[in-house]
């Protein structure tokens, strides 16, 4: 495994019954980069994310995260690895019986000897770093808007300062201002904390504004990966349609104006 | 030169790597493990200066002194995460001076310092007595609101009922029949078996007591009065409250959760007519029938047990039964529609109160069952007093 890669997926095959989702999929995530994973509906973007974090067991192939084979780990070693990544699910997946602060405290409880007051303060800090107001700490997830729930989910994913963060459609369902703020938050956190980010998205603006590299999932594998400029050169019909469609042009021109 | 050396590490063997140099003691830990949980932090004290080396992260944070020393040197710090940066930023706020540190570390500390919640944003804790009083007051208000809302839902049901009579096409007959099947027909097995067993138990217990006085034959009166007047309908209502109140809350609540009720309103459908009326009406129609079945099977169980243990033959049981009068049956079954309204209104109200989270659905469902059973028993007690007064 190359030292620069924090995730290496090789020859991944996932299937549910007869339905093959991935076949011979290879993917790398380099340290400190934001990788955008795109693909049509049903191409298994979320399945790939779930396979990497070990929620779905692949049929074949290897997945190694931070130099460890995810499938082969068990018990304490697996828990230790899980504490080095953070996952933000689509709707935050917050525990509904706990307040936002208590949600963020959940991973912090794994730290031995951490004083209660420090844990509370650290949770408050993460909530604030995720861009939520202080008073949101004591709110329950059901009292928050969708965008705030995503931010709270991000705060929980970042609780233990993981090296890798998985984000599943972080800007889906947010208004353009909120989505833009979230994009900037992801880049700012990556710069401050040196995160590697695995980002599943459909949002072309997000791809333009924060992703260093883009991986396109199609035909049951990573069809191609590279920077935005490289994507624009690809001749594959789906990729071409995706990056040259009317929405893509709008996203690109607004980006140019912004620059 | 150095006055105190404090080397704290997560792992005992890492002390082996410590080396001295001209300035005092600087530790060079073992080759830094890439696993943050195994990272080590070394603190060495020079006067009021605390020199940190290794990793200051969330795992080594508990080793830091609670009160930050006035001078902190982080020049030798290899790794710093937000938890460590939080400690340093807070120390800086409290007047400690930080020395050294790379540009990246400095910017992380600044980022964290900016995100630190402002102290006066946090509300001061209220005194315990006042909190307890406020809590009691809130509970009382919530209880009053609950009763007001129950009255409101009863009114809405009656209004919907009246509208259904005046405009029959708006009434949903299919839905009513579906709910009659759900709350009535499906409950028949459990209600009859339960009541049969109650009859058996009453006959058996009554027989052993009444035999002592040689008054075995009065076991028929015992069974008839207790089953027909009280137990048959009360236990049926309790079972239906458990089965149907929870089902009402769950079905209406999950529709509420997914905004189906709001969608209904925008489509010009009245949730009272579509949801509440058929469900509560089905209960009102079905509960007396279930109560009657419970009465019959209770008597059957009692008659069977009397025959077996006391030798009271079925014809004798029947003739004795006819002496107790039909008033008991009426006194029992007249309560059924009232219980049905109580169960239905409480179940529908709880369903409409479900919020957007799944947890409130579970909470309201169990609250609906508990409230419905409790209210049924209270109503039964009130009926007892009423019947005693009017001599029924």
From TrEMBL, chain A:
UniProt-listed Pfam families: ABC_tran
Transmembrane segments: none
Domain of life: Bacteria
GO molecular function: ATP binding
UniProt xrefs under InterPro entries: AAA+_ATPase (IPR003593), ABC_transporter-like_ATP-bd (IPR003439), ABC_transporter-like_CS (IPR017871), P-loop_NTPase (IPR027417)
Keywords tagged on the record: ATP-binding, Nucleotide-binding, Transport
Domain (ABC transporter) ranges: 7-244
Listed PROSITE patterns: ABC_TRANSPORTER_1, ABC_TRANSPORTER_2
Name of this protein: ABC transporter ATP-binding protein
Organism, as annotated: Paracoccus maritimus
């Amino acid at each position: 495994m190359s030292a620069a890669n924090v995730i290496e997926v090789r020859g991944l095959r996932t299937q549910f019954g007869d339905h093959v989702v991935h076949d011979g999929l290879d993917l790398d995530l380099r340290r400190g980069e934001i990788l955008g994973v795109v693909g049509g509906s049903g191409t298994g973007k979320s399945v790939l994310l779930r396979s990497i974090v070990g929620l779905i067991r692949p049929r074949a192939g290897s997945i190694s995260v931070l130099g460890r084979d995810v499938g082969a780990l068990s018990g304490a070693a697996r828990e230790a690895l899980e504490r080095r990544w953070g996952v933000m699910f689509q709707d935050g997946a917050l525990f509904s019986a706990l307040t936002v602060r208590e949600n963020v405290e959940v991973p912090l409880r794994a730290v031995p000897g951490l004083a209660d007051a420090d844990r509370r303060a650290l949770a408050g800090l993460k909530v604030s770093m995720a861009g939520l107001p202080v008073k949101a700490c004591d709110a329950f997830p059901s009292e928050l808007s969708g965008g705030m729930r995503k931010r709270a989910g991000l705060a929980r994913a970042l609780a233990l300062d993981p090296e890798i963060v998985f984000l599943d459609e972080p800007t889906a369902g947010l208004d353009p201002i909120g989505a833009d703020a979230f994009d900037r938050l992801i880049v700012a956190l990556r710069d401050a904390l040196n995160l590697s980010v695995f980002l599943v998205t459909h949002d072309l603006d997000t791809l333009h504004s924060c992703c260093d590299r883009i991986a396109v999932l199609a035909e049951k594998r990573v069809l191609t990966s590279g920077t935005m400029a490289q994507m624009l050169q690809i001749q594959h019909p789906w990729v071409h349609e995706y990056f040259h469609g009317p929405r893509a042009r709008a996203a690109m021109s607004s980006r140019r104006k912004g620059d | 030169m150095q006055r105190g050396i404090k080397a704290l590490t997560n792992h005992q063997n890492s002390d082996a790597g410590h080396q001295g140099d001209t300035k005092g003691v600087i530790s060079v830990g073992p080759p830094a493990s890439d696993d943050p949980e195994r990272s080590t932090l070394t603190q060495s004290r020079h006067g009021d200066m605390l020199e940190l080396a290794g990793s200051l992260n969330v795992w080594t944070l508990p080793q830091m002194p609670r009160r930050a020393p006035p001078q902190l040197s982080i020049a030798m710090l290899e790794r710093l995460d937000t938890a460590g940066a939080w400690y340093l930023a807070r120390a800086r706020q409290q007047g400690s001076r930080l020395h050294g540190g790379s540009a990246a570390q400095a910017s992380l500390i600044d980022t964290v310092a900016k995100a630190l919640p402002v102290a006066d944003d946090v509300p001061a804790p209220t005194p315990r007595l006042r909190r307890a009083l406020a809590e009691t007051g809130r509970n009382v208000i919530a209880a009053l609101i609950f009763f007001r809302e129950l009255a409101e839902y009863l009114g809405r049901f009656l209004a919907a009922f009246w509208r259904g009579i005046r405009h029959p096409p708006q009434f949903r007959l299919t839905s009513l029949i579906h709910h009659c099947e759900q709350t009535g027909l499906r409950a028949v097995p459990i209600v009859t078996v339960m009541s049969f067993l109650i009859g058996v138990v009453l006959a058996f217990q009554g027989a052993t007591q009444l035999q002592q006085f040689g008054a075995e034959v009065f076991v028929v009166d015992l069974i008839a009065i207790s089953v027909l007047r009280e137990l048959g309908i009360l236990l049926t209502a309790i079972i239906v409250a458990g089965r149907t109140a929870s089902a009402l809350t769950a079905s209406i609540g999950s529709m509420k959760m997914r905004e189906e009720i709001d969608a209904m309103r925008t489509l010009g459908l009245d949730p009272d007519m579509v949801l509440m009326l058929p469900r509560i009406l089905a209960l009102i129609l079905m509960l007396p029938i279930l109560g009657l079945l419970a009465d019959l099977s209770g008597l059957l169980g009692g008659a069977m047990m009397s025959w077996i243990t006391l030798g009271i033959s079925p014809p004798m049981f029947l003739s004795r039964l006819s002496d107790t009068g039909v008033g008991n049956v009426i006194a029992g079954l007249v309560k059924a529609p009232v219980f049905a309204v109580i169960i239905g209104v409480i179940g529908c109200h709880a369903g409409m109160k479900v919020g957007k989270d799944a947890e409130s659905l579970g909470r309201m469902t169990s609250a609906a069952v508990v409230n419905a059973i409790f209210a049924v028993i209270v109503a039964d007690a009130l009926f007892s007093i009423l019947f005693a007064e009017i001599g029924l």
